[in-house]
């Protein structure tokens, strides 16, 4: 394990705050009839407007795997 630098810790903290804002926006938007696609778009918008990039979207553990299709991982 490598010890994080103060700059890396700052970036991790900022990322955590951005994630918190995105999740809060998604939770606030939940209501009957709202689709998972709409909630995903809200989360992605908050992340991108905050200068971030969704880490799940497009993720592939192996090249032959289908990329993860969304920003947030939600199920009902």
List key phrases describing it.
76 residues; mainly alpha; 50% helix
Structure notes:
This protein has 76 residues and is an all-alpha fold. 50% of the residues lie in helices and 0% in strands. The chain contains 2 helices and no strands. Helix 1 runs antiparallel to helix 2 (36-49).
Largest sheet: none
**Mean pLDDT over all positions:** 96
3D shape: flat
Low-pLDDT residue intervals, each spanning 5 or more residues: none
The termini sit apart by 37 Å
Q: Please provide the ordered H/E string of secondary-structure elements.
A: HH
Please report the number of helical segments.
2
Strand content bin: under 5%
- Whole-number count of domains: 1
Q: In which range does the helix fraction lie?
A: 40-55%
Assembly category: single chain
Give me the secondary-structure category.
mainly alpha
**How many β-strand stretches?**
0
Radius of gyration: 15 Å
């Amino acid at each position: 394990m490598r010890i994080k630098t103060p700059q890396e810790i700052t970036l991790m903290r900022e990322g955590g705050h951005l994630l918190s804002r995105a999740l809060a926006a998604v939770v606030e938007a939940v209501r009957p009839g709202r689709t998972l696609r709409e909630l995903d778009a809200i989360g992605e918008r908050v992340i991108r407007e905050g200068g971030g990039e969704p880490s799940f979207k497009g993720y592939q553990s192996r090249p032959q795997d289908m990329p993860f299709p969304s920003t947030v991982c939600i199920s009902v």
